[in-house]
Amino acid sequence: MPRVAPKSQERRARTLALLRNQSLVAPDLRSYDHILVACSGGKDSLACLIYLIDEGADPTRIELHHHDVDGRGPPTFDWPITAAYCRAIAESFGVPLYLSWRDGGLRREMLREHEPTARVAFETPEGSIATFGGRGGPGTRLRFPQVTADLRLRWCSSVAKIDVMRSMVCNSPRFLGKRTLVVTGERAEESPARARYATFEPHRTDTRCGTRRRRHVDHWRPIHGLEEGQVWDLLRGHGVVPHVAYQLGFGRVSCMHCIFASPDQLATVR
Ligand code: SF4
What we know:
Layout: H1 6-22, E1 34-38, H2 43-54, E2 62-68, H3 82-93, E3 97-102, H4 105-110, E4 120-123, E5 129-132, H5 155-170, E6 179-183, H6 192-195, E7 200-202, E8 216-220, H7 228-237, H8 244-247, H9 263-269
Parallel strand pairs: 1-2, 1-6, 2-3, 6-8
Antiparallel strand pairs: 3-4, 4-5, 7-8
Helix pairs in contact: 1-7, 2-7
């Protein structure tokens, strides 16, 4: 780990103080059996992990979850390096990493014609791969995801990430009867739509008031109020080497061929 300059340490301390002040709804981290961090490999997901560790969250309860958007099919959307980068981060921080995906990823869903949406698969702590879904009625997509904040039309986020996480939690018996915290790194500064996200709320998989298969699942966005510079301060504070996309000049890490990529970014990728 590189030495941290005093100025950077000061900025990081200020950022952590700001996070504590704004987190009036911050959950008691000790009250959760599992803390699941959605890890894209981008700076915001890493800032969430760092914040949890700095706040004294028990590392044995933290786990990283990375969604492979190409679903083990031909490389189409993702950066080839991202899964290995997430694995290196997990090893460096001493926390487990679990991959999850929709079979065939975004490419298969985009080209889907007269067949069901593919099943979801995820790695388990026991070292096996669990699979669910894929038995729905036939349907046809044959469309690119639209560039819009509407997740029904920008279907890539839900098909490859949000719904994959949902399926993993809903189909993992280890979360039944437990308290689980799902942590994601959306920030208000990123877009007006994200600015409207709640910082803390029940997760979409929560069934605490149900009569059967009860699980308590909260969703926390701990860095929702941070600006980009403050996020970088957190990473610098732990000597994290950023994903190669940042080193190439990209402002955010998501899919390499993200539908929001600019012409310059796509030219760089090419
Ligand atoms: S990163 Fe871009 S292409 Fe990938 S799922 Fe999100 S919006 Fe879609």
